[in-house]
Structures are given as structure tokens and as C-alpha cells.
Design a protein that fits this description.
The protein is α+β, with helices and mostly antiparallel strands. The protein has four domains: about 180 residues, Dna Ligase, domain 1 (2-Layer Sandwich); about 120 residues, ATP-grasp fold, B domain (D-amino Acid Aminotransferase, Chain A, domain 1), CATH 3.30.470.20; about 220 residues, no CATH class; about 110 residues, Phosphohistidine domain (Glucose Oxidase, domain 1, 3-Layer(bba) Sandwich), CATH 3.50.30. Helix content is about 40%, strand content about 25%. It has 21 helices and 28 strands. The longest helix has 23 residues.
């Protein structure tokens, strides 16, 4: 069994082993955030400690007798449990291993911090419930580790368990041991304004000396407000600091008077910008607002810890339907990576999109976008591109080269799925921007920029989707039963993880994919993230309305078409129902009695081809593909734009 890991070997998924604090420090280390070096004594060490000292049953018995409404009852239970832990002995193998890891750090003083396995989660804030011990030398190391373990059972922590209905959960604790930063400047920061909840503002608080003085409120720190878009400082409030908390050479802390220095601004403008960029990077990586502790030692900036801000009341996030398409999970995964992760990386953090995908069994995938997030406003990007047109032209050259590399992979049927996946992510951001700026009239865009975007859209037609289809084909070797090929992620294939048949069956019944996660309990996810799904509907009772593309009247059986393979099932006189027609459908459209689409305007393909063929056509119904099922009998009155459902197939 593993008992200790260095930060570099820990990621955000390791909360059960490293606790919230440990997992966060490991994750930040892995993505290049400057974190003080250290290691985590995993929760498995604590569990072995309890087992070898026969403490688990004793602790459970004491907790079962607690009256959580009686403070004295909680305090007595805490005293008993903490005494048991502090008197118990370390397992020999763990003691030796801790000593080795400590020696490898080569430090005299370290910080020893508790990290509960439920700590710093977005739903429950354990911050402040457990204990940390600073300026710990080798003599105090093992004592302080046991104190951290015991802090899981302080009166405050026990009370917190009951208040948050965690008393039945098996909460364990890991211990972080890391370099003790002897900071000359330190403080806290929030990636969202904690009072106004302005998502475009970063708030930094800074003081001279050790950070504990700021965190505990023993000094009034400077305060800086930074614009997240361009990292300009919009507000600076300097406070007079008369004393600073400093480390004693012999260990422990002491207050020192700082006189004139305390009247000056703590952070320089360069330090404010450097810190703000790190905070923004951490927030983007995690995908949620973060609360940061930071410190500067000898002109080097460190991030001490990061955790979700749990006090925010999330604004309502409105996700509106954009389109419905026949997609698999790899499509959705590449789309998400391309627009949520790669888009800001490619376009200087000026924009990102946050698509949400919902698959309904036997239907296609419906794609939704967040229209309430100001950070997804395109205007700052447009302003940049108009002023830096030569920059996007250079990006276009890289785009062309990458597209050509993809064409070579497809032409030669190469098996290099890693390179193909990388190239798909590289070209997606420019395509995403081009799709919007090359077609929308909502933004004022120069003719040269719009023309470039239209060229990108046209040149990507033979690249993006064929590349994803080929990537899916390469992945299919992992799935024995090909009916599940649409239900596997590329990331699973890359890690050689084969989902169980039960999991694949579950996915086949429907899923929501958002921010890199597959979700099955839609309503719970909406509630937790304050999401509202908006499906604009033109459906009332037994009627669906849309826009007239080609007048006429028809009656027939519905055939819903999401993929070209569905065209084989169309019979003479059927009514084709599809998100949007494509040129490949034309031969079949000649034998249908009517055309109904979810999308489109008067110049879309369905409008043009229906008028050429003189086939009644209603476009822009928004959700006909989701409402109508194969075999339903409908009446299409394309002179008034109404589809009447006469008989639903049982």
C-alpha cells in the first residue's frame, strides 16, 4: 500500500488519498504553478495508524454517543478522541518513510497542514476546521503530524460534521508537509469579487510578513482590484501597516514593528499583474472561482493553496439550444476541448465558449451554449483582431499547415491517433471563431476579417469532421460491441480504459456532457450549477410551427434523419424531418412529400433545394426532430407554416 506521495505525483482526482488541500497542491504543481515543494502523507497512513492502534471502533463509539445539540457533549468527545490519537504510536514503516521524504526536502523548517478528504470541496468548505503547524523542525515533525490527524476531531470539526450532515460519512485526513515560505509579502486573493460577485474582477489582499496575519485578520491589508480581461489594476487601496508577523530563527513567529515601510504599497504593479495572471490560470484550469493564498520570498512568488469559493451564490446560467447533430462522445469531447480549453489558449485569453451537450436515446445530440456569461462576449476578441489583423493572418498560416497534416493522415490512413487528436485541438479554435464571425450579423466586423473567416470555414469542410470520424474509427478497436462505439471518450482510449458493459449501456440510454464530465442525473447537475436549459419551442398541443420555405400541402409518415445512413429508410411519400438538409440528401429529397427542419433561414440549403424541387418545406421549427418520432402521421401545411400531428406511432 502507498503511504506518501510527492506533489508532482498527485492530481485533483486524488482527494480521497491526499485530501482537498493536498490534491490541489499536486494539481497546481503538475500544471506549472509555483508551489512550495513538498509531499503528502496520504489518508492511507492515517487509516493504518488507526488500525494498528485499534482506534477506529473506539472513535466510532465515542462519536455515536455525541449529542450534537449539546456543546459540552461535543467537547468531551473531542478531548477523548484527541488523547487517544496523541498517545498512540506511529507504525514503524510509515515513520521511516516520512523521515526519508523529509530528509529529501533538505529543509530546516516546514509547514505541516491538515488536508481532510472532504476538505476544500466546492460543496462543503472544511477550510478553517482543521489545523496547521508552521515553522516545524524535525523534532516537532511527528508530533505535529499526529496533531493534524487529531484535528479531524476538534470540537469545531465534530460540530461541523453534524451541521453539514457528514456524521455518517467516513471522512479521513491526509497531511501536507511542504517548504515553509519565509515571506516578505503575502496575502489572499479571489478570482471573483467576493462581495459584488463580479466575474471580471480579481481581488488581491496583501500585507508585509507572513500570510497568517492577513488570513487571521490581525492586520488590515492593502486591497487591489484587477480587470480579468487585460489585467489592468482598476483600484488600489493602501493601508498603513505598523507591524509584520515574522519567523524566529529558532522557530515560531514573532511580531516586528515596520515603521515607514508599512505606509508604502505592498505589491508593485508588476507583482500585481504576475499574481493576477496566475490566479486566472488556476481558475481557468479548474473551471470554477478560486480562493488563493500566496506569498513572496526573495522576489519569488508562490501559491500556497487554492480552493473553491463556496460563499458565492451562483448567478443563473442560461444555456440555449443552438443545434442538433448526430454526434458521438468523441465529437463532444473534441468540441469541448477545442472551445473551452484551446480557444482561450490560442486567442490570448480573450474568449472561450462553454458548450453543453445532451444525448437522448435514439435521437441526436443537442448542443447548448451559455448566453449569460459576460466572459464569453466576443467583442474584446473582435477589437483585438481588428487592430492585429496580421496576427490572425499568421494564425491562418499555422491553421493551413495543420489542416494539411490532417489531410495526409486521412489520405494515408495512418494510425497516429495522438497526433491526429492534437491537430484537431489545434485547428478547432480558429474554426470556432470563423463560424461566428463569418456568419453572424450581431457583431460589426470588417469586410477583410469576415472574408478571412469565411475562407477558414470553407477550407475546414474536408478536414474537421472527417478527422473526428477517422479518430472514432481508430478508437473503435477498443470496443468489441460496435453498437457502443459512440459511447466512449478519446481520453478513455488514450489511457486504455475500457468502460464496463453496464457503463456503456447506461451511456446508450442518454447523457449530458459538460466541462469534460459525463452526467446522468441532469436535474441534480442543473441545480448544483444553477443551470437553466432553454429549449425554444414552437410546439403547442398537436401542432408545430416554423417558417415557410416553400409553400404547399402534404400528408405522410415521418422519417427522422440525423445521419446520412438514415436516408436508406426513406420511402416514397415520407416526410423527412432533420436538423438541416445537406447536398448529399438531394437524391432522396426528390421522393419525399415534405421537408421539415429544426434550423435555417430563407437562404439555407433546405429553402433553396425545396423551391427547386417544389417540395413543401417548413424550416426553423427548433425542435421537430426531438418531438416527432419515426412513423408518426403528420399533415404539413407549408402555406401557413404549421405541422399538425395526426397520429403518433405507438
Amino acid at each position: 500500500m502507498e503511504f506518501i506521495r510527492k506533489f508532482i505525483n498527485i492530481n485533483k482526482e486524488d482527494v480521497a488519498l491526499a485530501g482537498g488541500k493536498g490534491a490541489s497542491l499536486g494539481e497546481m504543481t503538475r500544471i506549472g504553478i509555483p508551489v512550495p515543494s513538498g509531499f503528502v502523507i496520504l489518508s492511507s497512513s492515517f487509516e493504518k495508524f488507526l488500525t494498528e492502534n485499534s482506534l477506529r471502533k473506539k472513535i466510532d463509539l465515542i462519536l455515536s454517543g455525541v449529542n450534537n445539540k449539546n456543546i459540552r457533549s461535543i467537547e468531551l468527545a473531542s478531548e477523548k478522541i484527541r488523547k487517544l490519537i496523541l498517545k498512540a504510536t506511529f507504525p514503524g514503516d510509515i515513520l521511516i518513510e516520512i523521515k526519508k521524504y523529509f530528509d529529501d526536502l533538505g529543509l530546516t523548517f516546514v509547514a505541516v497542514r491538515s488536508s481532510a478528504t472532504a476538505e476544500d470541496s466546492a460543496s462543503t468548505a472544511w477550510a478553517g476546521q482543521l489545523e496547521s503547524y508552521l515553522n516545524t523542525d524535525e523534532k516537532k515533525l511527528f508530533e505535529n503530524i499526529k496533531k493534524c490527524w487529531a484535528s479531524l476531531f476538534t470540537a469545531r470539526a465534530i460540530s461541523y460534521r453534524f451541521e453539514n450532515n457528514l456524521d455518517k460519512q467516513n471522512i479521513s485526513v491526509a497531511v501536507v508537509v511542504q517548504k515553509m515560505v519565509e515571506s516578505v509579502k503575502s496575502g489572499v486573493a479571489f478570482s471573483i469579487h467576493p462581495v459584488t460577485q463580479n466575474k471580471n474582477q480579481i481581488i488581491i489582499e496583501a500585507g508585509f510578513g507572513l500570510g497568517e496575519a492577513v488570513v487571521s485578520g490581525q492586520i488590515t491589508p492593502d486591497s487591489y482590484v484587477v480587470n480579468k480581461q487585460n489585467f489592468s489594476t482598476s483600484s488600489v487601496v493602501v493601508k498603513n501597516q505598523t507591524k509584520a508577523l515574522c519567523r524566529k530563527s529558532s522557530g515560531g513567529n514573532e511580531w516586528k514593528k515596520i515603521k515607514e515601510k508599512g505606509k508604502k504599497q505592498v505589491l508593485s504593479s508588476e507583482e500585481i499583474t504576475e499574481l493576477a495572471k496566475l490566479i486566472s490560470k488556476i481558475e481557468k484550469h479548474y473551471g470554477f472561482a478560486v480562493d488563493i493564498e500566496w506569498a513572496i520570498e526573495k522576489d519569488r512568488l508562490y501559491i500556497i493553496q487554492s480552493r473553491p469559493i463556496t460563499t458565492l451564490s451562483l448567478p443563473r446560467q442560461e444555456y440555449r439550444k443552438i443545434m442538433t447533430r448526430p454526434q458521438n462522445l468523441i465529437d463532444c469531447e473534441c468540441w469541448d476541448e477545442g472551445e473551452r480549453l484551446m480557444l482561450p489558449k490560442k486567442f490570448k485569453d480573450l474568449i472561450f465558449f462553454d458548450p453543453l451537450f445532451i444525448y437522448v436515446q435514439n435521437k441526436a445530440v443537442t448542443i447548448y451554449y451559455n448566453f449569460t456569461d459576460p466572459e464569453q462576449n466576443l467583442q474584446p476578441l473582435i477589437d483585438f483582431l481588428e487592430k492585429n489583423y496580421s496576427w490572425i493572418k499568421r494564425e491562418k498560416i499555422d491553421f493551413d499547415n495543420n489542416c494539411q497534416k490532417i489531410r495526409e493522415i486521412l489520405k494515408n490512413k495512418l494510425n497516429d491517433h495522438i497526433e491526429l487528436h492534437k491537430l484537431i485541438k489545434e485547428i478547432w479554435p480558429l474554426i470556432a471563431v470563423a463560424n461566428v464571425l463569418g456568419s453572424t450579423e450581431f457583431f460589426k466586423v470588417s469586410k477583410r476579417l469576415r472574408s478571412l473567416c469565411i475562407i477558414v470555414r470553407n477550407e475546414s469542410d474536408d478536414v474537421l469532421h472527417p478527422a473526428i470520424n477517422y479518430l472514432t474509427k481508430l478508437v473503435s478497436v477498443l470496443i468489441p460491441d460496435k453498437k457502443f462505439i459512440n459511447q466512449i471518450l478519446y481520453s478513455e482510449f488514450e489511457k486504455n480504459i475500457i468502460p464496463s458493459r453496464a457503463e456503456l449501456e447506461k451511456r446508450n440510454n442518454g447523457w449530458l456532457y459538460h466541462k469534460g464530465k459525463i452526467v446522468y442525473d441532469f436535474e441534480k447537475y442543473y441545480q448544483k450549477n444553477n443551470i437553466e436549459i432553454v429549449n425554444p419551442s414552437k410546439h403547442f398541443k398537436n401542432k408545430i410551427t416554423g417558417d415557410i420555405a416553400c409553400k404547399g400541402f402534404a400528408r405522410g409518415r415521418v422519417r427522422v434523419v440525423f445521419e446520412l445512413s438514415d436516408l436508406r429508410k426513406i420511402k416514397e411519400g415520407d416526410v423527412i424531418v432533420t436538423p438541416m438538409t445537406t447536398p448529399e440528401m438531394v437524391p432522396v429529397l426528390k421522393k419525399v412529400s415534405a421537408i421539415i427542419t429544426d434550423e435555417g433561414g430563407i437562404t439555407c440549403h433546405a429553402s433553396i433545394i425545396s423551391r427547386e424541387l417544389k417540395v413543401p418545406c417548413i424550416i426553423g421549427t427548433v425542435s421537430a426532430t426531438q418531438i416527432l418520432n419515426n412513423g408518426a402521421l403528420v399533415e404539413v401545411d407549408a402555406s401557413s407554416g404549421v405541422v399538425k400531428i395526426l397520429k403518433i406511432k405507438q
